[in-house]
Specification:
76% helix, elongated
Length: 176
């Protein structure tokens, strides 16, 4: 049974890295397309009218889809003052309680996001923008991200004893 969970966790970690890479590529595209748009305007060759709204959509999507990877890396905002002051066993128990709380909150937000996705799909609402992407797609991103976060909290619960190993710095593995 443990090997199946380990295999799932490894596959899930690869999925999160892939999603984080997509977010990184989108940010890289901003770095190219925004100066390109400024150049096009400067030389009076036109403009990319959809660019700023595409950046807005990509930032929204990137923040939500990248959040599970950030949580897995331990690069999220976190205050370790309490767990550092507690004995290791108590700190591990507190970590597990916080992981359960995080799981429940993310599950609640996932259900909320799914309800909004269905409502937006049924209504067929569109934003008042030039680049019009149905609102339900954005709500689906919200729901998916909280589903992935809930999975990561379950996996963190499973790894709670390892993460508080005194030899490991939680921020040491942060980043790509």
């Amino acid at each position: 049974m443990g090997s199946r969970i380990d295999a799932f966790e490894a596959a899930f970690a690869r999925l999160l890295v892939w999603l984080a890479a997509l977010v990184a590529v989108s940010i890289g595209l901003f770095a190219v397309l925004i100066p390109l748009n400024l150049f096009l305007v400067k030389v009076e060759w036109g403009t990319l009218p959809w660019l700023f709204e595409a950046v807005e959509y990509a930032l929204y999507t990137g923040v939500f889809i990248g959040a599970p990877w950030v949580l897995r890396q331990g690069a999220h905002i976190r205050v370790d003052v309490i767990t550092a002051a507690l004995p290791k066993a108590a700190a591990a128990r507190l970590e597990k309680v916080l992981d359960v709380a995080g799981f429940l909150l993310c599950l609640l937000l996932c259900v909320y996001g799914l309800r909004l996705t269905i409502l937006e799909f049924e209504d067929g609402t569109l934003p008042d923008k030039d680049l019009r992407i149905d609102n339900w797609y954005m709500m689906a991103v919200f729901a998916l991200s909280f589903f992935l976060l809930a999975i990561e909290f379950v996996l963190r619960f499973r790894r709670a004893a390892e993460t508080l190993d005194e030899d490991k710095d939680p921020a040491a593995g942060s980043g790509f």
